Amino acid sequence: MSMTPPRGKLKYHCVEVIAGPDGCGAATELKGQRLLSTEAPRLPLASCDRASQCACRYLHHEDRRAGPRRADEKGELGSTWAYTNRRKSRDRRVSGR
Hints:
The protein is built from 2 helices and 3 strands. It is mostly beta strands. A 3-stranded antiparallel β-sheet has the order 2-1-3, with no helix packed on it. The longest helix has 5 residues. The N and C termini lie far apart (49 Å).
């Protein structure tokens, strides 16, 4: 059985809960957290104390990771050892004998 997402859906699509102008404590606690869209709570949140006036919304993201994580993705130089060729002789698998 294949675990690939259905056509048109991203595997790690996620949402962030954005509190409305007068957001409740439950929404502000989720500030900055990315939740997989399949696991995200329904709005208004269950513990919302302003459910009748809730103005919270979802901000959609293609991936739950935020920003670059690796040095080369950030435009920084990585470790020098990663760019050093430490081979001293020709490749032993090359036939030329």
